[in-house]
Design goal:
By secondary structure, the protein is mostly beta strands. The chain contains 1 helix and 12 strands, in the order E-E-E-E-E-E-E-E-E-E-E-E-H. The strands form 4 sheets. Strands 2-1-4-8 form a 4-stranded mixed β-sheet, with no helix packed on it.
């Protein structure tokens, strides 16, 4: 605690998220505490007002088509819901803010890569915002060697679903 060996600085002061075709460029975004989220309007609508639903804002900033990005600053680590204050209720994303920069979001195939991990024994943790499961795996990171980790997150919501009923059509 308090020594340089325990602190890993974030390399990028901000992360860019675009809006195009009426959708955010990613459904899930990861940030390091202190990093800004820049939301840029590259879409078809003339303007969006991206904001964190669960963090009060004194003013609404508007991302105009082709204009400068709106910069949002989470006030503490945790989970945020990115929404649009103009009224596009379908425009939303999950934003996870963590204390340290050793995190990422998987691609659509479920693959991920984390650069700059220190050598030694570590734990990799994974969770998914849509299901209540999580998974952890102990790994031994060696210098100059890519460490592969496979994590399968159990879907705890699926395990507690009531049994399905046989549904019959309402027409004859």
């Amino acid at each position: 605690y308090g020594t340089d060996k325990y602190y890993l600085p974030e390399k990028n002061p901000s992360k860019l998220l675009t809006v195009s075709h009426c959708a955010y460029g990613a459904r899930t975004v990861d940030l390091t505490f202190g990093q800004a989220l820049e939301v840029k309007n590259e879409g078809s609508a003339p303007m969006f007002a991206p904001d964190f639903e669960n963090q009060p804002s004194p003013a609404i900033m508007v991302a105009t088509l082709g204009g400068d990005p709106v910069r949002l600053y989470p006030k503490r680590p945790g989970r945020y819901r990115l929404i649009d204050r103009i009224g596009y209720s379908y425009l939303e994303a999950d934003v996870f803010v963590l204390y340290q920069p050793l995190h990422t979001v998987t691609n659509l195939a479920g693959h991920f890569r984390i650069e700059g991990v220190p050598v030694g024994k570590l734990k990799v943790n994974a969770e998914h915002p849509a299901i209540e499961g999580s998974k952890s795996e102990d790994v031994d990171v060696k210098d100059g060697v890519v460490t592969e980790v496979t994590l399968t997150i159990p879907n705890l919501k699926a395990a507690v679903r009531p049994p399905s009923r046989d549904l019959k059509p309402i027409w004859p």
